Amino acid sequence: MSDSRTLRAPSEPLPDDAPVASERRQFIRLLGGGFVVATGAGTSGCASGMPEAAVAPWQAASAEADPRRFMLAHALLAPNPHNRQPWIADLREPGRIHLVCDGERLLPETDPFGRQILIGCGAFVELAVTAGAQRGLAVAVEPFPDGAPAADALPRGVRVATLSLGAAGSARPDPLFEQITRRRTNKSAYANGRPLPSGLTQAWRETARAHGLQAGVVEGEAAMAPLRQLTREAYEIECTTPATWLESARLMRIGPRAIAEHRDGISLTSPMVRALHTVGLFDPEEVPKPGTATLKRVMERWAPFDTGSGYLWLASPDRARASQLAAGRAYVRMHLQATAAGVDMHPLSQALQEFAQMQRPYLAVHRQLGVDPATSAVQMLARVGQALEPVGPSPRRGLGAHLKV
Q1: What does each C-alpha distance from 116 to 100, 187, 264 come to in angstroms?
Q2: Strands (E), 271-334
């Protein structure tokens, strides 16, 4: 699970007299074909191609006076798969927020049962609760008040949670609140072998336990090598499976105009990407095929994701829908703890996806982490460490797009 994936602009333009075929090869090298994980720094602002309007919610969250709007303005900054932002907040009942899963913003190919979508909803809930505490309001959370969706059904239109606000002064401010607008999902290269800050791993474990989950960190080259291999294999499967590749392709937002219009999905800001798309030299719906040079270049884009201090994993003792929601709450809180400690996090979700072609790496990751997939589930796997370059915030649709009043 992750936020919008942003591609950095190339360092120099393509020569005007370069042949068309050369342009295409150059473009593929820069893009890596990897819009599924199209990474890069991508700071906010017009210079990078990221329109200010698309990232304005990160600066405007604390301007809301109404307590529920204040909570939601922070909650919508939560990480979520493919930056779909699948949240509808029903405010028609005073003193409560009914969170509904937007059935138009699911990922039926890469996330066929909506597990990752519900994790994103859990992250939304946790940030809402944290923001409520900042206003002195305790928030009671009732998961799935109408009943949880079936294990094999997408949570389309499901009321995921009801949040009930307590009386004024019923909560103390959460020390992690200030990290909400600072949190980023950094997909650039990380420093290798740099130890994590003292106490952070233990804090992550305690956060997991508070939500009925288990967490751990895999560190050291020997222990990390199998996970590097499995996450890379899973990425190749996602890229070469037409349905999953095309699901991502259709969420591409190429250039400032498309990014500003949609404010979700996979943001591509490179001037070269935009130019080649305009003249028809870039077709995002061209699926990489095994054994081709295109796929080789796609896989080269994975190299930065093999870097870092370790892998953080989060697992539930069952496969219940409530545990998926709890995993989202725990994960975003762990990310806030990481941000406070100067540590970056980047989910590598491919190997945990549950479409048929992913079965082998899915089972292998569970075995590697000592989790029985028949009874339990690894809910999140992320690389952690210190990124070599900062990133800006990813687009958000703004509060009004999420409200039912």
Answers
A1: 15, 18, 16
A2: 310-316
